[in-house]
Specification:
Elements (H helix, E strand, L loop, with lengths): L2 E3 L7 E4 L4 E19 L6 E7 L1 E2 L12 E2 L2 E2 L4 E5 L5 E5 L5 E9 L10 E8 L5 E5 L2 H17 L23 H7 L3 H14 L20 H4 L1 H13 L2 H20 L1 E2 L2 E2 L29 H25 L3 H22 E2 L4 E2 L5 H9 L7 H15 L8 H13 L3 H8 L7 H6 L24 H8 L2 E3 L8 E4 L9 E8 L2 E10 L2 E8 L4 E7 L1 E5 L2 E2 L6 E7 L2 E6 L2 E8 L1
Helix pairs in contact: 3-5, 3-6, 5-6, 6-7, 7-8, 7-9, 9-11
Amino acid sequence: MVYSRLAGIAPVSVEQLDDTTLMVDFGTNLTGMLNISFHGLVAGQKITIHYADLDGRDPEEAWRLRMEHKGFSTYNQLDEFISAGEKEEQFENVFNYHGFRYALIEGLTYLPEKEDLLAIPVETEIHETGSFSCSNELYNQIHQMVRWTYRALNLGGQTVDCPQRERLGYGDGQTIMDVGCYNFDASTLYTKWSENWWDEQKEDGFVPFVAPTPHGTGGGPAWGAMSIMVPWKTYLFYNDTTLLETGYPYMKKYIAYLGSHCENGVLQDIFPGEKWTNLGDWVPPGRGMDKSEWVDDKSRRFFNNCYRVHLLQVMMKIGRILGMGDDVAVFRHELEIAQKALHEKWFNPADTTYANAEQPYLIFPLQTGVIPGELEDEMFEKYVHTMLVKDQGHLNTGMIGTQITFDYLLDKDRNDLIDIMVNQKTYPGWGYMIEKGATTCWEQWNGYYSQIHSCFPYIGGWFYRGLAGIQWDPESPGFKNIILRPGLVESVDWVECRYESHYGPIISNWKIEADEFEWEIRIPVNCTATVFIPGEDIEVDGMDLSELKDLVFLRRENIHSIYRVGSGDYTFSSRH
């Protein structure tokens, strides 16, 4: 993989912090190098540069600091420059990168000009493929924040958890894949990273929580599941069947490893008694590293068991694709045993909930089929009430729970519920991050610890997949057949979106004015689309749909008329 240097970023301010230290603010967090020109230094003069992602000098913000220096979170990132005494000298940390917004410069006896300083972002070189904008300015800001977060974490042919502290390819990476694959052509990156996960698998099937693995780390069953989820999501985006074929033995081995730690269909803690190696839904609101009260063990174990069921569902799909009929039957058998066992062990019949009855523990049994079919509607209504009333329209999920929740709501075409959660500007949520001045996603919903982190960028995929409605078709992946189902929500009047698939550009631009819906789409050559058109009195390019032979009516579903459409440009209109 090749590193790419992006356009340099000039400082927004340079000021004297104290008698010995200057502070440079570049206005945004980034990952990269600092280029600085020095003038008139004395031979042997030492300049020390500390790099920070958070200014915590405000007493009300100081609690967010970790590994700090002079009120800034630096995580011990520093460079030292020893002058040769030349009239003009230049420094750039070309052998390493830092994660920072602020540079604290010690040992310099003058205030440098802004023109002498430049931050140079770096990333693994990948081609840009996506663009999104809409009428909701908060959503545009969130889109830019999560997109920039991806660029700050796309390092060394993997996405790291953070660029300034651990700098490792954690299992957190599954929560940032959609952002990467919609905005960039990340096909080779994820092919390479899949191989890293397989390389790290142990003889007994265990997969460490980071890949490559320099040392032991925290994590849980979902982290090692990257050995399955990275190639699976890569297949959906790019139709890479070869990657599934190559990785299938490793995936099957990991599922068997989890199965070996089950008793009567229930996954036990793989590392009994350990806190950091049995993690479930990591850092939900109020349950982060700054708190002593984490998610209770009962709920954590239920979450990890649901995740195993989720993996069995994915493995059944992969097995069918590869023609592994006998394996699919085994996965199905294990799935049915687990679904029944989880329901019996964790269901609360008094109030139709599971575990602690918080949001992820209501959604996950729905997503995995753990709850019996006759209770699904009641459970979903319980979730909706919990989110809207108890949690006041906010999400109450951690890293994996957020991903599972939004995937499930998207499958149910409940963009309206996602819109309510994402459009909040109060804690917890992405709007809260924006209101607090974030330029990259935080590690925790409250802003504690890392300010450049992979835990919560997953929402970035919703702008493409939900609002614009550009979705992969699992039956014809890689966008060979495109599912186009725009998410018409209360807070958005128009969307303009483009995604450059491997087959060509896909466009979904829609707007609503006075109850009139207009939708411009583009389908690449040699591709088809399943198009969900909302409303009544539908026309295409000013004509009745019955006049066009390229449009095949499939069915009516709720507010949508569904058609199969061939390649080309179309403008649909309807009364909404």
